Amino acid sequence: MDYEIKTQGKFNYIEEGEGEPLVMLHGLFGALSNFRDLLDHFKLSNKVVIPMLPLFDLNILETTVSGLAKYVHKFIEARGYQNVHLLGNSLGGHVALVYLLKHPEAPVSSLTLTGSSGLFENGMGETYPKRGDYEYIRKKTELTFYDPAMATKELVDEVFEIVGNRLKVIKIIALAKSAIRHNLGEELSDLKIPTLLVWGQNDTITPPMVGEEFHKLIPNSELHFIDKCGHAPMMEVPGEFNKILHAFLDKLKK
């Protein structure tokens, strides 16, 4: 990704464009590159912000969904953002939800969840990932997508490098277990801001029924399914994803 990574204190992030901040949170095996197409599209209308979540940098006791939510809270506070549109994929969605539920006063105008954990997920982290087995990691990475060709060598290499590091694997498992334990259920009815749910019809990690359950529990929400799409719609079908998000953000301006 050819964008400058900026630093403020302990925070590393990308910030491009002008306008209301659109803050994007990546998932457990995610990276800044997951949002490349969204960044290129929305930097023309918004200030697009992608913080690098410290998945492997927190101490083990803080390596939890709540620990990451605290980090996001401090980041948004430190940057002084207002009228934030918060977007999270997978674990990033779960982090966004915990942050908003703990900080109802947060300067957030809308929420977008795509393939979010928080209710139910089939993760890679529930068992110790096989270190050194590249083929296993490749197949697991392919499961993220409807089209296995989306699991490029570059992407598989990134995941392979993470699971080849014992300390990183311990933290991945800690986060995955924290996500499973931290089920949000009925708390979601407290969420009042406009919420967009975008789900892949072929998501096997947080299946379509999870999107439906979020829709049922979050009062002011709308749900969109994208066919022939897995767990990361913003990567697999960015054109369609951007169109849905653009229409949602436009509606909020009226």
Automatic annotation (TrEMBL):
Gene Ontology CC annotation, any one: membrane
Domain of life: Bacteria
Entries under InterPro entries matching the protein: AB_hydrolase_1, AB_hydrolase_fold, AB_hydrolase_sf
Domain spans labelled AB hydrolase-1: 21-136, 186-236
Name of the featured protein: Pimeloyl-ACP methyl ester carboxylesterase
Organism: Chitinophaga rupis
Biological classification of the source: Bacteria, Pseudomonadati, Bacteroidota, Chitinophagia, Chitinophagales
